[in-house]
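Thread: quick sanity check before group meeting

JM: Hey all, I'm pulling together slides for Thursday and realized we never actually wrote out the predicted structure for the chain we discussed last week. Dropping the sequence here so it's in one place. If anyone has concerns about the input, flag it before I start.
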Amino acid sequence: MTTTGRRAVLAAGASAAAAALAGCASDGGPRRPSAAERAAAREAERVARAETALRGRATAASRTLLERYDAALAAHPGLRPRLAPLRASAAAHAEALGEGGPAPAPAPAASASASATVSGTPAAVPATTPAAPPVPADPAAALRELAAAARAAADAQTAELDAAPPGYARLLASVAAAGAGHAYLLTEGARR
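JM (edit): ok, ran it. Output follows.
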C-alpha cells in the first residue's frame, strides 16, 4: 500500500471513529468534534491536496517527456532501435508516478512504421498531441533536444523531493535518476 493509500485509510478511519463518537456524548446529545479533531482533519485535507498536486506535477513532467519521445520517433523512425527502450521506460515512469492511471498510448510511429503502402513509401504518421514541440530535422539535434527534455523532467522531479512523502520521494528519486541516465544515453552514451 502506498503512502497515499495509507493516509486515505487512516483519514477514513479517523472520520469513521469521529462519526461513531458523535453519538456517544455523555449528555445523550450529539458530540461535536473538538478543536484538535477539527484541526487534524483540516491538516489531513491540506496534506492530501498538496500530495495530489505534487503527484500531478510529477506525472505531468513524465508525460511531457513521453510526448517528446513520441514526437522524436514520429519524426525520425530510424531512431526507433535506440529510442524505443527509453520511451518504454518513460511510459512506465509516467504510469508509476500516476499510481496506476491509464497507461500512456504507444508511440504514434510504431504502427505507421510497421505499415507501408503498396508503393513502398511509409504510411501517413498519425499526428502527435498538439502540445508536442517541433522536432529538429537533424536526428542528432533531435537527440540533443530529447536529452535536454529528459534532464528537465529529472530536474523537475528532483525539485519535488523535499515536499514528497517518503514512499513517493523514493519513487521520484528513482525516476529522476533514470531520467538523468536517459539524458546520458541520448548524448554521451552515443559517443562511445
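AS: nice. The longest helix spans residues 35-75. The helical segments are 3-22, 35-75, 80-97, 108-114, 139-159, 166-186.
JM: adding both to the slides.
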